[in-house]
Amino acid sequence: MPDDIRRPAGPRTPAVDFLFSEGALRLEGESYPEDVTTLYGSVLAAVDDWLATEPPKARLDVALSYFNSSSAKALMMLLERLDAAAGRGTAVEVVWFFDAEDEGMEELGEEFGEDLEHAAFRLEPVPAAT
Q1: CATH number of the domain that 98 lies in?
Q2: How many domains in the chain?
Q3: CA distance linking residue 31 with residue 33, whole number of Å
Q4: Which of 43, 54, 61, 71 would bridge with 67, disulfide CB 3.0–4.6 Å?
């Protein structure tokens, strides 16, 4: 099993808390890195290694307030991996958190969720920050 990934948010990168030992994955913040491969390449490789162990469950919490198109592609690659694992028997839940006043992020979540065939997907509005 790969080591857990705990990376704090940076000015252009989200916090990454992937606790493989618990089946709990979380992305939070903003994602528009200069080099998306540097940020997500190792994360996706670790997810591949973890999913090869056929974990019984996985939950991905996505709490991004903004991401660019390159990050969207990386996010889709992550969701595809989790959806495939769900098709093989892992109980996968994806929870998309969005600011209750941000219709754009809600719509993006809906679009990502529509692409999942096997994983459970849920939109979760959060109150706007004051």
Answers
A1: 3.30.750
A2: 1
A3: 6
A4: 71
